[in-house]
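lol ok so funny story. i was supposed to be doing the assay writeup but got distracted and ended up predicting the structure for this chain instead. priorities right. anyway since i did it might as well share w the group, maybe its usefull for someone
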Amino acid sequence: MDVETDVRSSAEHNDADEVLCEFDVHFASGLAGQLHLLQHPVRLRRYGRGIEPTEAQYRPQANRLQFELPVNTSQQAYDADRGRELARAVGESQRSKKDENSATTARARRHGANGGATGMDLDESQSDPIMERVAIGSVPMPMMTNYMVGVLRNGKCRRVRHAIVLLLTRRL
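and the output, tada:
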């Protein structure tokens, strides 16, 4: 490999990749405590896109964030047996907590018969409940790298060093 050839090909590549505009960069720390970076696990394309969360909870002092997402039980990729198994496990867990904490029962009633907080049908007359919602929650991650956030305003880029990184994982 010739060094001269590498320099020429690099120069040719840079000519094709022209600079479109330049910005002045200003560092600001005013927003650092209010910005959170959310890293979501990779999701396969077959599970669909455009799924909107039905519920979100944020606990700023604990740096915890949780989303509840609907599960498309009609898709071919959905494992109905596993959905029933998870729904039964959640139901059993809730029944054992029901005696300990009446607030859980009240919250389930507020969400109605289609599951709300639990992710399954709460109608106890139904013999075969199925998981129809999944919760993903955050786990604070140690800072292994530095993240920067940039805001473009009036032709200037304002950058903030990011302080909090949360990894979203599934929760039952």
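Residues 109-125 have pLDDT under 50 and may be disordered. The CA atoms of residues 13 and 19 lie 12 Å apart.
back to the writeup now i swear
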